[in-house]
Amino acid sequence: MFDLSVMDIVIDMARSCRNGEVPVAAAVVLDETIISAATNEVETSDIPWHHAEFLAVEGALKKLGSRYLEMASLYVTLEPCAFCAAVLEKVRIKNIYFGAYDPKFGAICHNIRLFEHSFIRPNVVGGIREELCSNILKEFFKMLRIKEDL
User: Is the pTM of this model over 0.90?
Assistant: First the structure.
């Protein structure tokens, strides 16, 4: 089962995003320990796939010296997009725990629903602290629109 304290950590990380980054954070957990965590770095790196999930997974793989995360869990504040869901499939992640649903770009419970068509079937739990995660994103985009209007 998921650990709310880990979700609270990634929520705090998302709140700390700066430099115009969409406030999404992710952590990879193995044996009840966070082994890698990241926030979005798309704007600061100018690399479109530097999503929090990708960076957290990349860090975990490097730390473990492995190509797979078969016994690990991913905690993330937003339902992963198609790219990130494919990354999670490739590393054979065991569990995916996320906060806000993403009807527009999410690819686990929405749109392509990647794992319904895959031989990899992670345990997925969405909606963890959903309102809080959603409000962080809504506030970010609200402030972005205000800045654009100035």
Answer: yes
Query: Exposure of 69 by Cβ count < 10 A (0-12 exposed, 13-18 middle, 19+ buried)?
Result: buried
pLDDT in tens, 38-84: 999 999 999 999 999 999 999 999 999 999 999 999 999 999 999 99
d(CA 104, CA 80): 11
Question: Which residues touch 88 (CB under 8 Å, ≥6 apart)?
Answer: 53, 57, 74, 80, 96, 122
Q: List residues with catalytic annotation.
A: 53
| Strand, helix or coil for residue 103 | coil
Contacts of 124 (CB under 8 A, 6+ apart): 95, 96, 97, 98, 108, 109, 115
Residue 142, CA distances (Å) to 44, 64, 65, 118, 145 in order: 20, 39, 41, 36, 5
pLDDT at res. 1: 84
